[in-house]
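We emphasize that the prediction below concerns an isolated chain of 277 residues; any contacts that depend on oligomerization or on bound cofactors are therefore not represented. The input was used exactly as deposited, without trimming of termini.
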Amino acid sequence: MIKNKLVSRGIDYIMQHLNEDITIEDVACYCHFSKYYFSRVFKEETGESIYAFIKRLKMEQSALRLKIEKDRTITDIGIVFGYSPSNYSSVFKKHHNVSPAEFRKRINTTCIPHPFYQNKSAGFKSFEEYDRKIKIQELDDFFVIYERHIGNYIELGRNWFNFLEKYKDLINEDTLMIERSYDDPSITSIEQCLYDICITVDKNCSLDNVTMIQGGKFAACRFKGSIKDIFYSYQGLFNIWLPNSGYEMDERYGLDIYRSVDCENMHVVMDICIPIK
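Result of the prediction step, given as a token string:
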């Protein structure tokens, strides 16, 4: 868990300005520290230098764009993240061990292996089957208590249990459990996935770890099933539905809103919400 609030604030700044030429000085200044002190604290908390973190996120978020924006040129996507055409291809290949063009060709639109469960894979459904489950919704802003984690999604259940136990006195019948996910685990190393776990609270809550999740227009897909199959629903939506839907994902990040959780049978009902414009 990211316990240092200023490091978490720095990560927010990086995520919000990923398509800009961010420097270590920019992030440190935003958090009101010298770059030397903040660089040390950031690496202690995340295991990565600020520079390495920014570069990795640019490569992984641009790969996601290659995946979901199939009609957009590789050159355009590279430019969005601050790279010239030749430099983008070189840096991308060094990070992913494959060129952007080959990465895009390899994107599988029929099935995908599960990154958390070895020897498990599943096929995708048709666009029409996904589309029937999608509802375009305007969501209000959410005020939440949150904890930020970098690590394997396989630890999500334990992290949720500890989180809910810690804040049980603030939970009532109207409380929503929300995950905010930033990475695609088919692209990002499973040990480096960034995510927030949250519960809704009154906007006047006085705790330090309260933030606002921006609402707006979302494509919401209701998922009912085993927790281990959430990954496949996500991949189907991003590999099949989104590239063919006529919608574009905007600069916000995805949300999972839990509607019910059956811990004993590892079964959930949740809305997978993709921010669109």
